[in-house]
Amino acid sequence: MKYKTYLLFGAPGAGKGTQGKILGTVPGFVHVASGDLFRSLDPQSEAGKIFREYADRGQLVPDDFTVRLWGHHIQRLIEARRFDPDKDYLLLDGIPRNTHQAELMDPHMHVMKLIHLTAGGSRDAVIQRLKLRSLREGRSDDKSEQVINKRMEVYQNETVPLLKHFPDSLRLDVNALQTPIEVTRDILTGICANGNFIPPKP
Fold it and tell me: Going by DSSP bridges, is the β-strand pair 89-93/109-118 parallel, antiparallel, or unpaired?
């Protein structure tokens, strides 16, 4: 079946994780972040070693591996009754990350909106925000400026073209330079328009 899905996109440091966590508390949303999914892997397991090898170089994990891991995770959520495909909406953060991943996932997604967090500012400012996040959250993929630059390069080369994979009518651009609550407000206003998002009744 196809899951009703909202996709959350934005460059490194745009606030995808923050918005994903906030929106994940809204009844009817089930937030799934690929980054959290990978970081929860046992580092000594085969899957954990594959992820760390790529993440430490600022590169994307192979597409087939990523999509397979995502599919297994969704099935576990369904079996645990944490996600009801008939009632709930998936909020995907960080997946798909390129056109090939999207093509692999298309049979399983009914995309409602593509939420695109746009952020201006200088490259140096973005790097400093990511380094600060590394200190707060202990994320190894943010600690090195070289790795950060590689992640930004990968985003421009592989993820930005993905925006063209989906119809323009599905795209919702939101200014990520606002306060988190203002960004959340604009996202909810945009997705609730025309009955796109119908939260479950209490």
Answer: unpaired
Instruction: List the 3-10 sheet strands across, edge first.
Output: 29-33, 89-93, 3-10, 109-118, 171-175
Q: Where are the domains of the chain?
A: 3-190
How many angstroms separate the Cα of 15 from the Cα of each of 10, 38, 74, 136, 150? 8, 18, 23, 15, 18
Specify burial of residue 124 (Cβ count, 10 A radius: 0-12, 13-18, 19+): exposed
Note if the pTM is more than 0.85: no
* Residue carrying structure tokens 């201006």: 120
CA distances from 160 to 9, 85, 100, 101 (A): 9, 28, 13, 13
Encode pLDDT of 186-200 as tens digits: 999 999 876 666 666
CB atoms within 10 A of CB 177: 13
Alpha carbon 192 to chain centroid, angstroms = 20
Task: Report how far Cα 191 is from the mean position of its chain's Cα atoms.
Answer: 16
Domain spanning 3-190: CATH superfamily: P-loop containing nucleotide triphosphate hydrolases (3.40.50.300)
Cα–Cα dist 82/100, whole Å: 28
